[in-house]
Amino acid sequence: MIRVEVRPLSVPATLLLVLSLAAASCGGGGGGASDGGASATPAGSGGATAASVPAPVVLPVTDAVSTAQQIAEANAAAWPFQVPDLATLRASPKKVFAHYFTPFPVSIDNLAAPADYYGSHYLSPQGEGGKFAGSGGFIKQRPLPRTVLNAPTWTQTDAAQDVRRAAALGIDGFAVDLLASSGVHWERAQRMLDTAAATDSGFRILLMPDMESEFKAQPANMLTVVRALARHPAAYRLPDGRLVLSPYNAQNQPADWWKSQLATLKAEGIDIALWPVFQGWSRHAQAFAPISLGFSDWGVRSPGVNRAWKDAPAQAHAWNVKWMATVSPQDARAKDLIFWEAGNSENYRVMWDNAIAGGADWAHIVTWNDYSEATEVAPSSGTQWSFYDLTAYYTAWFKSGAAPAIHKDALYYFHRRHSTAAQPDLTKQTRRYVPANGSDAAADDIEVLVFARAPARLRVSVGAQVTERDVPAGLTSVRVPLAEGTPVFELLRDGATVASVRSGFAVNNRIVYQDMLYRSGASTRALVAPQ
User: What is the CA radius of gyration of the chain?
Assistant: First the structure.
């Protein structure tokens, strides 16, 4: 039999269609017709089959240097939706910052992949002296590898590439995680400010001292960092000239301590607008409201929990402060063998809905490039361009108040490489992954996001199962159970295929190490070094 659940997407005026096929045989043959057009049939029965969908185009590397115009042209060719021009997006009072994590630049050593540091150390169980052998490696994906640069300024070039890619989405700037007052991470933070100023004068850096790092044990060093960057031309300021300071885990120091630091800086001519980021913000609201312009919270990474956060902007406004909503795609930490169940793309969509429908003032994308927690939206070998493209769609919606018009058919898929029940080799993996506190229950689905310019019929083939579903015009999410094989997705209209894509990631439950990262790809993008 076929069980079909239909419910709204987390964004207004769209539909989420969740198809779950029972493990039992589809005996009787009548289930599909009674469920509004859904049907499941053995592979190869009726019409074209998945075999007609070609293997995806795979590129080994990306260009090392792309101009803003080249990135805009590539995005316009790939995106199935139309967004306002960059000037219009930047003029919006609703600001969007992407969290930039200095440990993961585009390249660490300017070597060719896979012999570079990402390939030989972070992705390898034997990397860094086997430090993460018990989890199969430190991370499960990496920044898209690029061609090697024959110039001593390659670090600046990489930073500029990040700036241009982010700016093309309508993002206002990076919230740079300030981890230290000296050393490599301090150098990378300074470089990002310098590069932003030189690359795009409209792209700003939100200063985010990390109160879980050096500044937890040595909070006075935070002032040293702020003093050094306060007058930088790329540092984000309000129209009234105040420098916005947005410390992560601000609650590690009491509100009176922050009040004293703000007074010290103001006496030195540095006027600060404090916008703290908490974990458990409501517990600190009363103490921090009198000294804060806005609040934010790092949040969690499962859609079931996050649906309850839609009222957070209104709750913050009741304290007479603004709200910066957190939006994040997923969180799967190989280094810790924990994960939050993100429900394919659902967590990202739910969190954006909270920002849009809830009336948030700003949005904070967590993250641009933290590969150790797999929260990145920057193009990567695992999630490819999918969350990058979705960021453009939702950023435009958040800033303009209207969903971008869909002008082209496109398919985006999301799934893991194995079932959550697949058994690792516990002689090599230290222990099984466990859901983090606050995670939804583990799920085993394949999801396809359909951008349809007109009603159409979606066909999903995986293993021996073919599932079809009528989809309306607009954005629709369709899920089918995860099964072994290589998923294939086809969108048909009037008997013709208008969009199709074969996943670049086969599903295989015979594993050595678990890997809870959701992979993804799109019908409008070539894959780059998929992992």
Answer: 23
Nearest of 240, 226, 322, 340 to residue 281 by alpha carbon: 322
* pLDDT for 51: 86
Asked whether 19 and 478 are in contact (CB, 8 A), the reply is yes
Q: What number of other Cβ atoms are within 10 A of residue 85's Cβ?
A: 10
CA 47 to chain CA mean position, Å: 36
Residues 6+ apart with CB under 8 A from 49: 43, 461, 466
Given a contact cutoff of 8 angstroms between Cβ atoms, the answer to whether 456 and 471 are in contact is yes
User: How crowded is residue 317: how many other Cβ atoms within 10 Å of its Cβ?
Assistant: 16
**Residue carrying the six token digits 């169980």:** 125
Rounded to two decimals, what is the model's pTM? Answer: 0.92
> Average pLDDT of 110-114?
98
Structure tokens of 468? 């079809």
Comparing CA positions, the residue from 141, 33, 114, 92 lying closest to residue 370 is 141
The answer to whether residue 29 scores a pLDDT higher than 50 is no
| DSSP type of residue 464 | T
Range list of β-strands (E), 150-195: 173-178
Residue 137: φ, ψ to 5°? 130, 160
Query: Which amino acid belongs to residue 244?
Result: V
Of 363, 371, 327, the residue nearest 118 (C-alpha)? 371
* Residues forming beta bridges with residue 480, ordered by sequence position: 446
pLDDT for 19 equals 35
H or E stretch including 171?
none
Q: Which residue has the tokens 């959550």?
A: 420
pLDDT tens for each residue of 327-338: 999 999 999 999
Are the C-beta atoms of residues 198 and 229 closer than 8 Å to each other? Answer: no
Q: How many other C-beta atoms are found inside a 10 Å radius of the C-beta of residue 7?
A: 9
